[in-house]
Amino acid sequence: MTAQPLLARRLWEAVEPLHAVVYFAPEPAEAAREVGLKGYWMGYFAGRLSAVGPVGAGVGSALCFAFAPGKVARALPDAWSFATAEAVLESRLAAVEKMLGRLLKPLRPSELDQLTGLLEALVDTCDFDGRALAAAWADVPRPDSLLVRLWLAATVLREHRGDGHVMALAREGLGGLAAGITHVAAGAVTRESIQGSRGWTDEEWELGSAKLRRKGLLDAEGGLTPAGQELRTRVEADTDRLASHAVIRAEAATTAIALAAPVSRALLTSGALPPVNPIGLPRPS
């Protein structure tokens, strides 16, 4: 792996927990309920897509690529009958401020200011062509709150990488179900965490696995064949390459990683993020 894609991978590992804690902390879930949304997953999809606008199930499934369309359809477009996208976005950002105010108390203001400025500078180098979800979050005006600015910058960077990951998967002919199955087969995550959270039924999972076996990508035990391993290696390499826009300013990226990694490690150690999760997030080095 060349220097820029490797740096892009390290940036994701260091910054992802700063974004992903929003899915596990109580404050965002409480904010979703208070604004009128029904249940965790309606809050998840409406909150994640609030920057895009009041999209329906089809667009929501395309943007939240790994999820079963039926799971998305149970939340969208119904969510927008309970709360507008603008209200959901406002409540989410307010919850982020409370959440990070609680979780990042040990962080010195000077470190917070430096890290936030660096991540925003990296966002400014990103190319958003074909990256609808990242572009939508990049369009959210930067607020006055330093904590929310930090989360927003981390969010844009992770969705930029995520949109690129979808491009890499689609290039290899992998849909959301096949992506999940091969992710599990690669040993990065458990079937329970992926299938349960993403909403695929046992029948869908088995049919998807059978299709991948016919293609020579899965073996009889559900592991990756050599061809499957090569495919997943290409996907991850392409994902890193496509994320390299974010680390064009290598010195700023390196400093951001050095500042973000210990914060993210602390979030993982504290239990703010579960050690086993469907993201397959490694502990930042």
Automatic annotation (TrEMBL):
<dbReference type="InterPro" id="IPR054058">
    <property type="entry name" value="HTH_67"/>
</dbReference>
<protein>
    <recommendedName>
        <fullName>SalK</fullName>
    </recommendedName>
</protein>
<dbReference type="Pfam" id="PF21863">
    <property type="entry name" value="HTH_67"/>
</dbReference>
